[in-house]
């Protein structure tokens, strides 16, 4: 992942309502939820939810699929795994380099 994409995803999740929407979808699992059900669970107006879902979709954190007249939203698990990996993969990578220089 590149730093720009990570920054946009973190910015999207930095909004309390979007984070609540995203957590609701993560809890729902692979089946996702109809938009109307997300609205019930989060308790925001439809237009507000639409705005927040759009932002999560644009950043790749959420996908949507139409099933008949119902719009199903799902957390994009590979995207969040990539984001978490980006944040954690280099954990402590510079510790040995710094300790080598300070041991003198």
UniProtKB/TrEMBL annotation:
<dbReference type="InterPro" id="IPR001845">
    <property type="entry name" value="HTH_ArsR_DNA-bd_dom"/>
</dbReference>
<dbReference type="Pfam" id="PF12840">
    <property type="entry name" value="HTH_20"/>
</dbReference>
<keyword id="KW-0805">Transcription regulation</keyword>
<dbReference type="InterPro" id="IPR036390">
    <property type="entry name" value="WH_DNA-bd_sf"/>
</dbReference>
<dbReference type="InterPro" id="IPR011991">
    <property type="entry name" value="ArsR-like_HTH"/>
</dbReference>
<keyword id="KW-0238">DNA-binding</keyword>
<dbReference type="GO" id="GO:0003700">
    <property type="term" value="F:DNA-binding transcription factor activity"/>
</dbReference>
<dbReference type="InterPro" id="IPR051011">
    <property type="entry name" value="Metal_resp_trans_reg"/>
</dbReference>
<dbReference type="InterPro" id="IPR036388">
    <property type="entry name" value="WH-like_DNA-bd_sf"/>
</dbReference>
<feature type="domain" description="HTH arsR-type">
    <location>
        <begin position="1"/>
        <end position="95"/>
    </location>
</feature>
<protein>
    <submittedName>
        <fullName>Helix-turn-helix transcriptional regulator</fullName>
    </submittedName>
</protein>
<dbReference type="GO" id="GO:0003677">
    <property type="term" value="F:DNA binding"/>
</dbReference>
<keyword id="KW-0804">Transcription</keyword>
């Amino acid at each position: 992942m590149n730093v720009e994409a990570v920054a946009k995803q973190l910015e999207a999740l930095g909004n309390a309502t979007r984070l609540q929407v995203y957590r609701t979808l993560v809890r729902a699992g692979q089946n996702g939820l109809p938009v109307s059900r997300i609205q019930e669970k989060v308790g925001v107006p439809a237009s507000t939810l639409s705005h927040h879902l759009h932002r999560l979709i644009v950043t790749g954190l959420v996908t949507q699929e139409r099933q008949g007249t119902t719009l199903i939203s799902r957390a994009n698990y590979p995207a969040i795994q990539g984001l978490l990996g980006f944040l954690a993969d280099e954990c402590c990578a510079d510790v040995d380099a710094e300790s080598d220089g300070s041991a003198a």
